[in-house]
Structures are given as structure tokens and as C-alpha cells.
Amino acid sequence: MQKVEPIRTFDQIKLLADSRRLEILQLLMTAPATLTQLAHRLGQSPAWIRHHIKLLESAHLVEITEIRRTGTVMEKFYRARAGTFYLQELILPKSKKPAMIFSGSHDLALEAAAVSLSKHVNLLNLPVGSLDGLVNLRQGLCHISGAHLLDENGEYNTPYIRRFFPDREIEVITLANRIQGLMFRAGNPKKIKRISDLANPNIRFVNRNPGSGTRLWLDRELKRAEIRPDAVRGYTRVVKTHSEVAGLIASGKADAALGLQAAASQHGLGFIPLFEERYDLVLPHEQEKLLTPLLDYLQTGEFHRMTESLTGYSAVHSGEQIPL
């Protein structure tokens, strides 16, 4: 089975912006070939092909796979280093402030921290949920991620991180503990009291995206209560943040959701607490220097006071490193 490799650098991207080199690479993904064979396929001279092959070799996109000698003639067979390539490169803003890309589970304390640090660093947010955030971190699409994934053994985040990064040095630092539960319109007109009430066809539910820690927790509870997802009206209606969820309920476009107590409070919603969780930041060790302003800020009294001001948040363990 042939492998798939990322194209990680601008130098590689610039090389393949030339359609002639891209065509050579695509031919060599299909089968190995000599300079003469490629020249015949493309209607060019072997010297012309050699020039482009050397550039592709220097970019680690092409390699020699075999050398054949027939009498005094030596033929080199070239092949692509992968069966397929995919583009993967962050394009960051050009600024005196360092730019950090966050991708993971949505969090209100992290959003507030980004505002406080905005004079010194540019923290850019790509909320995709806990699992996809770890995928993006693994693939180099962000500098730091955030997760609140509860393992079946009752441990938060570290079992998942060990599985995603068995070969890399990873740091796990607690951002905050926070409370999640059922949120609904003020006054609770639909009389929502427990998870099983979500199966009421008169209740319009709004869900979080697959792979988010909130969605995974909900799916386990529905299974435990023997409630099929299709029995929940609105189960497939998905948004990416707790703030979006709360906003839909506040505007009357939904009746209930599972989400953060802080988001419910900010939108004047009713709330029933169901569980407290630990939310951790996850970063490769090599990104520690870039992320120092954020990591140092977690230790400050300002961050702790700001976090404690969010309903349902606790900063008691903020800034603590979790051993893997």
C-alpha cells in the first residue's frame, strides 16, 4: 500500500506551482521512470527533464528507486516519494506580534485570555472540537489545542493524547475546570429536568459537532438511557461553539442544548448542572517558546480572577502541568 505524505513547506509549494514539475511528479506517482521515458511522455529533451527532476529531488518529493546497467549504459529510475501528496501549510499574518494558532474545543476563558494578550500576541482561533483539534495538532495545522475528553476509565484527556502522540514530547496544562449541563430558555417553559427529556418531540434540541467533548459525553448518556439519537428532535442540527448554542436558545430558535453554564449565564438562560470537567491545553514541547506568553499568563492573578468570574468555572488548578 502506497503512503500519503504532506507538502509542508512553501518551497515545495512553489516548485509544484509550475505545471510542468507537477505533471512530472504525478507521472512518477503512478510508476517509476527514467529521464528518457519521461522525455518521451512529455515531448521534451532528457536534459530538460533532468533540470526539473533535480529540483524535485532537492525538495524531497522525488527519489532514485533503481539503477540499471546495460553494457556501458546506466539508467536511473525515479519515483515519487509518496503515492499521493496533500498540501499542509499555515499562512500566518505578517506582524511584529507573534501569531499562535489554536484549534480544539471552544472555551470562554481562552477567548478572554486572547483579548487580554492581544497587545503582545495574536491568538487565532479555529474551534473544531476536542478530537479534531488533536488531529490538527498532530498534522501541524495549529500550535496548540484544547480538549475535555473523558476516557471510559474516568480520566480526562491524557489517554487520548497518548494515543495521538506516542512518538512526540507533548505538554498538557490545565486551563480550568468548568461545569456543563442542560441549558434552556428562562423560566423553563418546556419543563426540562433531565437528559431523557430530550426525547420529547416538542423540544427542539441543538447539538455540538461530532468529535467535541460535549457531543461525546451526550452520546454516552443517550446510549445509557437507551435513547436513539434520531429520537432527539434536532440531534443533527450542529454548531461549533457553546456561545452559538446559547444564542440559538436565547433567540427562540431552539429549546435546549448541552453546554457550559457560563454560556447559559451570559445569555440569560436557565441551567441544570450535570457534570464538572477538566479542560486542558495540549502543545508539542517544541512550541513552548512561542506559547510562553500564554502559558505565563495562566499563572497570573489576573487570569485566575477573570476565570473565576465566569459562572461555573474554577481556576484552582489553572496552569498546572498534567503528567503523561
Largest sheet: 5 strands, antiparallel
- Number of discrete domains: 2
At the third CATH level, what is the topology name of the largest domain? D-Maltodextrin-Binding Protein, domain 2
| Shape label | elongated
Mean pLDDT: 94
CATH class of the largest domain: Alpha Beta
Rg on CA atoms, Å: 26 Å
| CATH architecture assignment name of the largest domain | 3-Layer(aba) Sandwich
How many strand units? 13
What is the overall number of helices? 12
Low-pLDDT parts are none
Helix/strand class: alpha/beta
Give the helices and strands as they follow along the chain: EHHHHEEEEHEHEHEEHEHEHEHHE
Describe this structure in words.
- With 324 residues, this protein is α/β, with parallel strands linked by helices.
- The protein folds into two domains: 4-87, Winged helix-like DNA-binding domain superfamily/Winged helix DNA-binding domain (Arc Repressor Mutant, subunit A), CATH 1.10.10; 99-314, D-Maltodextrin-Binding Protein, domain 2, CATH 3.40.190.290.
- The protein contains twelve helices and 13 strands.
- The protein has helices at residues 10-16, 19-30, 35-42, 46-58, 108-116, 130-138, 158-164, 213-224, 242-250, 261-266, 292-297, 301-308; strands at 4-7, 62-70, 73-80, 84-87, 99-104, 122-127, 145-147, 170-184, 207-208, 238-239, 256-260, 270-284, 313-314.
- It is elongated, with a radius of gyration of 26 Å.
